[in-house]
User: Fold this.
Amino acid sequence: MKLFLDTANLDEIREGLRWGVLKGVTTNPSLIGKAEQGFLPLVKEICTIVDGDVSIETSGDEADSLVRQGHDIMQIADNAVVKIALTTEGLSATRRLSDEGIKVNVTLCFSPAQAILAAEAGAYIISPFVGRLDDVATDGLRLLSDICEIYAAQGYATQVLAASLRHPLHVVEAARMGSDIATMPFKVFESLVKHPLTDAGFKKFTDDWEKAKPHLGELPPSMQEA
Ligand code: G3P
Assistant:
């Protein structure tokens, strides 16, 4: 499962890339607004530093306009993916853009029926929103599991991107269900690495090593410095 950051914050993206595990980025109008930077320079920079898909969202709900926006987004960078909301106009635009070979991420998916429509429209990615369903007392992970099962049964090529993930268990379950991609805020990304037993174990090994070092004779230079 590829790990994406759901952010338009360049510092967060650079940090994720430094860890060597970040494969892509998703943005949305709320995240772009929060970044408080010029749209085109910001999205161009994200597409430049990320070696993978970067979803950039369209606005409005009129198929012709969505198609035009899709063409403009594709001019930004080769790794740009056009993000379109799951409406009838959005499906129509998805079909037209997909027929041209343009990659579309169909977003705001809240039901298996919607996910079937997106795949039939030729979507490159479907984005079910797990956390927002949990917020309204509906099982978001169940939706993800249903979509993974249906897509496997039908042999759809559309990738399942688990979105609106709020904590590490969402990510682990998304992987277990066979999601192709999981996108998450930086704080969830960061929480994946943390474990108190790792911290305690690391401290003990470090302390014991420092105590033992004077009695170990010659060490490789890099180990002497560390
Ligand atoms: O960007 C799409 C999705 O991941 C948004 O998540 O946390 O705003 O529900 P959230």
